Amino acid sequence: MSKQLVEKEFTVFPFGPQHPVLPEPLQLRFTVDEERIVDVVPNIGYVHRGIERACELNDYRRNIFLCERICGICNFMHAMTYCESIEMITDAEVPERARYLRTVWAELQRLQSHLLWLGLFADGIGFESLFMQIWRDREIVLELNERTAGHRIHLSTCAIGGTRKDMDHELISRYSSSMEELRNRIDAIAPVFYKDKAVQKKTVGKGILPKSRAVALGAAGPTIRGSGIPQDLRTLSYEAYRELDFEPIVHDGEDAYSRALVRFDEVYQSIDLINRALDQMPKGPILQKNTVFPSGVAINRVEQPRGEVVYYVQGNGTIHLERCRVRTPTLANIPALLEMLMGYEVPDIPTIVLSIDPCMSCTERITYVKGGK
Amino acid sequence: MPKMLKNVLKNLLSKPATVNYPYVKPDPVPGTRGRISFDMARCDQCQDCERLCPSGAIKVFPEEKRVEYDPFRCIYCHLCVENCMQRAIIAEEVSRSPEYEKKKENFED
Fold first, then answer.
1. Which domain holds residue A211?
2. Contacts of B82 in chain A (CB under 8 A)
3. pLDDT in tens, B48-80
4. Binary contact (B75, A154; C-beta < 8 A)
5. What is the CA radius of gyration of chain B?
6. Is ipTM over 0.90?
7. A-chain residues near B78 (CB < 8 A)
8. Is the dihedral angle over the CA atoms A32, A37, A42, A43 positive or is it negative?
9. pLDDT in tens, A27-52
10. What distance in Å separates residue A171's CA from the closest CA in chain B?
């Protein structure tokens, strides 16, 4: 299709892999008729790291840290999904307190990821002071991370059969006060997202993804929830979500604005979930040591900030895994992104591309080599 | 507009959110997983740390009573610190400062 279009003398230009809007390398080759986009071809593969192969060569217990490094932003969720998969194969029991701790930390990661994205989105639409304000507020979450685990981003607290760290009374009260402070700070920003005309003018009606197309293209996470479909894997009640009365947040604007609102409302929801989990957290052990080598197959799905992550883990009864396959949400959202971009103008590209929250280092699990060379 | 003014005044009168690094260093948060070193007087060369290390940053040579540690491979997960039976790995709450060369460190008895 693109070749025919080129012959008709449309302009073809590359967007990325290096672009001020993109935090990570993704190339989109646009074919434009004057300013209007008529075709787009994605090209990924700039940060392929071969982590899946490394997972097969490593000791399966070391893979927790390797899987955690698939993504910097949702690292705890990757480690948690991997540990859950191994626990599924080996029929390991996870102590109740560890399930709550995992839920709290997973929501903390969602908070920092959504705040990071809201800042980047504000920067993408040219609202730099909002970007700085949101990132300043994000420091509250990062400081909590540091106090809990010792690092600001990579928690490294998940272990097979539970967690590595516990929270004492002092830390729990600090969590509660920090969540209160964060809620106040977010309340100050809320009118900008809900009422500001400049933000709405840049985002409302941009990157329309109709409900039916979102399902057909297999979109995930806030992208599909922004199109009015209440698809959230936290309703599957993994970890402690069963006890926390979880309801997915849905906006049916089908555009970049409603995707931003989904994320903004999820910040409030995550604060609520953390508070509720801290209130209900039972006492007890945090780790059940597991010495059985994994033998069998597990498929596990977890809701990440960007959508659903799927882990396929196959063990053969040794310390090495037969296969560890990861499908991250951005890969599911790329087909939807291509459809969103059609028919819009070049200045809308940053808003629409950012609206799916692309995370390329997560996505590049596979490289397609043409002709087998 | 009045809401915005409140924010503007607050930002004008409050301290900056950042510190002037590297001239001013922020106070270390308690529990920070910082740099590690080996106390060879305590180490019994059991190689537990070498087996546990997710990134393969530690190599123990039991015959030479030597530990080779690569700080640039280390991911500072502190698995070794938690699991050392002899408490021979000392953890500090200060992160490692940048260096000009990627050198390995040797700890000998």
1. 51-372
2. 164
3. 999 999 999 999 999 999 999 999 999 999 999
4. yes
5. 21
6. no
7. 150
8. positive
9. 899 999 888 999 999 888 888 888 88
10. 11
